[in-house]
């Protein structure tokens, strides 16, 4: 049976042109599990695994039945067994709730679908971060001081005049979900100094809570609260935006007029796990805490103690919230962990390892002397993880050098040493491929450090921990972004105009001159549109949350055709009149010196082009609004898939925009000229001129729209062209980010990357700020 299922799975995967890694990325099932199933090393796959594989492969009903049949074990007579007990070990995918008998026909609610996506994502992320390799570092906590905790009667939801004794909330990593469930208020603050594994504890809370969660309970979702500005957006609206960013399918309308994401937040179906309160910008923590206290949402909040205590001193504790404080690692913890992270020596004493002398020296230090810098540094899981990366399994790196107090005379110097050497160490070895399964040549450590420094500096200046591919160009001044967009868009449209002109006229000089003029004007126009749309309003382009679909559109799709018709018509009229007026001026001055005649020509051309472009843009935008439909609920939960989804959406829009807009402009130009002959004539226009105008307008307009007003277009212009051209980033940007993620430099948080730890980001940003000569190109905070 195992061989049969593996053969069927391999055949279906190969037919779709997927690698094992790509199937793993789409399904949430680990590549190791898929490899084991196809080779027969894993038998009797769980039905939830079969369901996710079938969904990722987009199988037809007959193929789904074939995969299901191959997955059902049979006895020697070929009959199915009575039950499914005793199946193989878990396949690396979370199951937050029990499944019906036939999971392939499962139609979960949006909340349950979200719970599955969250469990799958964070299970994979925990594996990527090697939290369980070889076993989790001990993460312990005790109850925080009373000054950081609300009244216990409020926490326990007791009636008036009731008294309550403080709870002892001490525990360790595997008990965090149980600790939270002891709090009737549903509010908990996790406090720990830098590197104390607050984020790992939050991750473990989500996974453990999902395992025991009932369908009536909210779904825990991790949000990096450091990106929240409470003075510009409410908590609920911000949670909704973040949820739609990481899960674009939840931008679809729910039962009311709001999105599914907004409904989940407003109805209390989301349990926010707010990670990184200390990363909120200075001056915003007090209003952030005040905003949190205006809500009754159950939540979990993580922070460094000092930042949280300062905010509490300015206003109040988090209402109805208990607080726990993470404790330091001990020498016993290090002795149990670090030796098991190294390879066996193969010498006479195979149990000996490079960490033994270090640990012995720390144990033998006299109590009367000040604590050694290394003993202080290795009290946090972050620094232990860095030390493991740099010195375990690295023959030419001896951890005994960390005991050199002349070289490392303070804990800060030792921490800087570990942070400095982390990047060169992880880039020592070449990976076989990116996270998408595509091979690449690898990245030089020095260049990687410079690029990572730019990214860290970029995030620090933007005051956000989220490394979003659609915002990588936002580190440039708004005027610089508009200028670069104008130049590249003008060049692209000019090339299209020149190629089309040469093809139609069969000559070279005239079309090239016309292409230069059209490219210049179009670049200026689209650059101004970009500046007016984003820079002037302080907005940022975001990925699309819709796709175009002609058949099978859901009933919940919002009607956008009417507003799109009005917006497109007005925008097309303004753009067309301006474009035609400038064209008329240029042509008029080429024909005559009479200013009044030149202005008359410019006004006529402005009216003609304005009318034609208004009709074309209005009809095209209206059609796009009719065809738009929400994305699937399980779409885009990682940076690459979101980029691919947005690229697909833009490509489809272009395939609609170019022919529709071109046809309306091409045929409409003749109609408009005929209508305006009597009041404005005589006007000279031919069918050939209409064909050329329609072709160039369709292609040029589509290009201008894509490069100027879409997230993928801005990614292409700024991140794939301008930033690599100026040396700030590599040409293969996404591959570089995936490679850094695989090496443990970055972590993945839904649709964005983040640095492994804020401490690493700040360290890289500080060193980049000292060495860079390009600060003039970076936007001020």
UniProtKB/TrEMBL annotation:
Pfam families: HTH_3. Signal peptide: none annotated. Gene3D superfamilies: lambda repressor-like DNA-binding domains, P-loop containing nucleotide triphosphate hydrolases. The chain crosses the membrane at residues 482-504, 516-534, 565-586, 598-627, 654-676, 683-706, 712-737. Residues 9-64 form the HTH cro/C1-type domain. Residues 67-108 are annotated as: Disordered. The keyword Transmembrane applies. Keywords: DNA-binding, Membrane, Transmembrane, Transmembrane helix. The keyword Transcription regulation does not apply. Residues 95-108 have a biased composition (Low complexity). PANTHER family: HTH-TYPE TRANSCRIPTIONAL REGULATOR, METHYLPHOSPHONATE SYNTHASE. This is Helix-turn-helix domain-containing protein. It comes from Streptomyces lanatus.
